[in-house]
Amino acid sequence: MLKVAVFVSGRGSNLRAILNSHKLRKLIKVQAVFSNKAACPAFKITEEYSINNYVVGKEENSISNNNLSEFLKSLKIDLVVLAGFLKMIPNDMIVDFRNRIINIHPALLPSFGGKGMYGMNVHKAVYNSSAQVSGVTVHFVNETYDTGKIIAQRCIDISDIGSPEEISERVLAVEHELLPYVIEKFALNKIIVGDDRVTVLP
Length: 202
Ligand code: GRF
Fold this sequence. Notes:
This protein is of the alpha/beta class. It has a single domain, classed as Formyl transferase, N-terminal domain (Rossmann fold). It contains 7 helices and 9 strands, in the order βααβαβαβαβαββαββ. The strands form 2 sheets. A 7-stranded mixed beta sheet has the order 3-2-1-4-5-6-7. It has a two-stranded antiparallel ribbon with strand order 8-9. α5 links the parallel β4 and β5. Bound molecules: 5-O-phosphono-beta-D-ribofuranosylamine (GRF). 5-O-phosphono-beta-D-ribofuranosylamine (GRF) is lined by residues 8, 10-14, 83-84, 104-106, 118-119, 172, 175. Residues 8, 10-14, 83-84, 104-106, 118-119, 172, 175 line the site of 5-O-phosphono-beta-D-ribofuranosylamine.
């Protein structure tokens, strides 16, 4: 079983999609969930599933950024999934877990990414640009926001859309499929990281 840590900052609908996936149940175990906020709504989900949760950052009783990588190693984590996590990942953890940290982004990178591009900010920017397609990207995490190698993307036609909220709804439904799909491929060793491109085997 692949040991997975999920990092969240919000409601955790992607976390729930991972936990509800029948295919993943046989392949992975969500070992721990981390958030930068003690009052993170997604922690309610961890209680339902009896998964340990931890706060990272400077709050009292939290794991400091300096200790995070070692802590994940002590849990023998194989894959880190950022599912709506809004803080920067410490550099030493990126080095220690190179090509083992993935992030889901609610648009088609390399457009509409970077610092400050999260949640509704993304969908508003897409809406205001008058883009006719949006989508979902799952990528490896490197030292800068939203620039790691892309693993998988899905396009969504938004030519008929009336608001950023509608884009968000349509995109979220696809996120809930694409993230478990990529985790499944990772668990089956079907993600090949080449020098130039990442390939996902059928
Ligand atoms: C998702 O749109 C994800 O792509 C983005 O933050 C949102 C998190 O949603 N990075 P949830 O907490 O999984 O419901």
